[in-house]
UniProtKB/TrEMBL annotation:
GO terms for molecular function: DNA binding. It comes from Citrobacter freundii. PANTHER family: HTH-TYPE TRANSCRIPTIONAL REGULATOR NIMR (PTHR11019:SF199). InterPro entries: AraC-bd, RmlC-like_jellyroll, RmlC_Cupin_sf. SUPFAM superfamilies: RmlC-like cupins. Pfam families: AraC_binding (PF02311). Residues 33-108 form the AraC-type arabinose-binding/dimerisation domain. This is Probable transcriptional regulator. It comes from the Bacteria. Keywords: DNA-binding. GO terms for biological process: regulation of DNA-templated transcription.
Length: 223
């Protein structure tokens, strides 16, 4: 079975603007399966909404799993990479830091309500890139951002190991969740004792191997 570690990932360049034409700029695009956007950052905040499909976002040794109908806030000047686990239909808001009364200082995943989902879809398809902030469109944008800021946060963060071999282990588990993936199997595969593997994995992720697998299953099947 081909694993994520063995797959040929295609690099997809970040196509965001360097400077935004408005306080809030809307974008919609498809990030195809097996494509990823390498590490990059922006001078503005971002809100990624996965209308369809699932993605993984890596930030500073942590991994956020974003299923369809969830969104993630990414602070400005934050290095991150995006991985499309299948075809992801993204509807994004790029936001100048000064637009919000309180800046977003850390990544967080939120559950999107039906109303917010349709509002985001309408905005990304209908609001121009050069709207007047005092116009009807400008007022709609302000209301939408307020709604998104009030959406409930969900704990979809999964610590990701920095060690290259353990990263391959985690990606294989992510790709083939039906297999047992025992400590003994992976310890033997990496040429170490089960005790050493368990200690090394917990040191890298902060979680016992069994707990990490349980959290991964919950994140991958949130409904």
């Amino acid at each position: 079975m081909e694993t994520l570690a063995q797959k040929q990932w295609n690099s997809f360049p970040d196509n965001s603007m360097t400077e935004l034409p408005q306080d809030v700029f809307f974008r919609s695009y498809v990030l195809e399966a097996n494509h990823h956007v390498p590490q990059h950052s922006h001078s503005f905040m971002q809100f990624h909404f996965a209308r369809k499909g699932s993605m993984r976002i890596d930030v500073a040794g942590k991994c956020w799993i974003i299923p369809a109908h969830y969104g993630i806030w990414i602070p400005n000047n934050t290095e991150h990479a995006v991985w499309a686990l299948d075809d992801v239909y993204l509807e994004n808001l790029d936001i100048k830091p000064g637009f919000l009364e309180e800046s977003i200082n850390e990544c967080k995943v939120v559950a999107i309500s039906d109303f917010a989902r349709e509002f985001i879809h309408y905005a990304t398809n209908s609001i121009s890139g050069h709207y007047d902030s005092q116009s009807k469109e400008g007022k709609l944008v302000s209301v939408l951002v307020d709604i998104i800021l009030q959406l409930p946060e969900v704990a979809f963060v999964l610590p990701w190991p920095q060690d290259r071999e353990l990263t391959k282990v985690c990606r294989t588990i992510q790709e083939s969740p039906a297999l047992e993936h025992s400590v003994e199997y992976w310890a033997h595969h990496l040429g170490m004792s089960a005790r050493t593997f368990s200690r090394h994995f917990k040191k890298e992720t902060g979680l016992p191997f069994s707990v990490w697998k349980q959290k991964k299953c919950v994140f991958w099947n949130p409904y």
